[in-house]
User: Which sequence fits this backbone?
């Protein structure tokens, strides 16, 4: 028994101090990686939502100006693409579409922003909405005033939420032909944000997206 020795008080205090330092470092590293993970998740969510919207916009822009060969009504020169407002964007695209019964219809698809206030939080933010409308008379210039909304939501369907920027710019106007002066490509810039709780407070994650879409039918029609 007399040959056995325990830890001295000094040794215990040193061991506790070293352990505290290690634990503090581990906790700080955990907090840092947790914040980084939340940031990555926010940016991934923004990218996923934006890519779905971009794919849909590009598809509609490619359709702009399409006239079915059985449609007796011409597509007027300034009809396929109308940029009613550049920023925030208000874009109208017109094209023919064949419904399930084989009937040709002239359609108008509109992308625009509108402020939305959540009832539960009272926080206001901008959304991009997509309206699909049926032109009432294909022989005249089709716009929102003489077309019928398809769907039950009078504003259209929400496409993107928490939109800080939606800018539409027309590029490469056509010099001659059926669609003279119509833009053959569109440049679209989006800035989205995703409010998430970081470090116990709500902080915004912001991400920018830019893309160029070609109006194939405007370009190809002589």
Assistant:
């Amino acid at each position: 028994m007399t040959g056995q020795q325990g830890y001295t008080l000094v040794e215990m205090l040193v061991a506790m101090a070293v352990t505290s330092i290690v634990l503090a470092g581990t906790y700080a590293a955990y907090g840092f990686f947790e914040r980084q993970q939340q940031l990555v998740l926010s940016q991934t969510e923004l990218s996923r939502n934006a890519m779905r919207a971009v794919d849909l916009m590009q598809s509609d822009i490619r359709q702009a100006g399409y006239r079915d060969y059985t449609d007796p009504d011409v597509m007027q020169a300034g009809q396929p693409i109308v940029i009613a407002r550049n920023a925030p964007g208000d874009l109208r695209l017109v094209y023919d579409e064949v419904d399930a019964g084989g009937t040709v219809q002239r359609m108008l698809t509109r992308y625009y922003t509108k402020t939305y206030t959540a009832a539960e939080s009272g926080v206001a933010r901008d959304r991009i909405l997509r309206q699909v409308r049926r032109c009432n008379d294909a022989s005249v210039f089709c716009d929102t005033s003489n077309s019928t909304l398809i769907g039950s939501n009078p504003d259209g369907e929400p496409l993107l939420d928490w939109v800080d920027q939606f800018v539409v710019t027309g590029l490469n106007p056509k010099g001659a032909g059926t669609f003279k002066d119509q833009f053959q490509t569109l440049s679209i810039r989006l800035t989205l944000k995703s409010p998430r709780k970081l470090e116990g407070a709500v902080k915004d994650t912001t991400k920018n997206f830019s893309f160029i879409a070609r109006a194939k039918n405007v370009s190809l029609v002589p």
